[in-house]
Design brief:
The chain is an alpha+beta fold. The protein has helices at residues 3-11, 121-146, 160-174, 193-212; strands spanning 18-20, 23-27, 35-42, 48-54, 60-63, 66-69, 73-81, 92-101, 109-118. The chain crosses the membrane at residues 160-179, 191-211.
Amino acid sequence: MHQPKRQAELVEGNLPVFVFPTELIFYADDQSTHKQVLTLYNPYEFALKFKVLCTTPNKYVVVDAAGAVKPQCCVDIVIRHRDVRSCHYGVIDKFRLQVSEQSQRKALGRKEVVATLLPSAKEQQKEEEEKRIKEHLTESLFFEQSCQPENRTVSSGPSLLTVFLGVVCIAALMLPTLGDVESLVPLYLHLSVNQKLVAAYILGLITMAILRT
């Protein structure tokens, strides 16, 4: 009695598709990331067949791009990036997973997975670290300004935390850079160029905050 109703629901093409992850990130300088795995889950009580489509198939190799998933089981789909070039950095590609019941041709559901090639995992971590430092410093300065009494007539000057951060940044800029052989400062105190750039950036934000007070 319920079979026709179930078939009618499936034909509508709104069947949820469960796949993990929903985003693939490849790093040009890390060959271990050039091979990614998508896992397709079938939580239903009937078998599904699947097909993987891509907006740029010439850039990827999809192992077992079509197949079947047994009821309440899962299958791994291996995707390899085969065109790692700088011209592809930051370009967003899309994979589409279409599923259907084995006895039907029409897709019952679909799910898109985005893929991006980035130049370096280290650069990505550096950008995220700088973003976290900037957000933390901005929140600290905002909290400091919001906690000041509104009826004050004379500025009390920068806080001890702001002055301390400024002194630390100045000291970091005065330390030798990695590669300075003639320096008498111990090697563990030598900073990289990127670290000094972060210190200079933070010092600039502190200077602007002090001038506004």
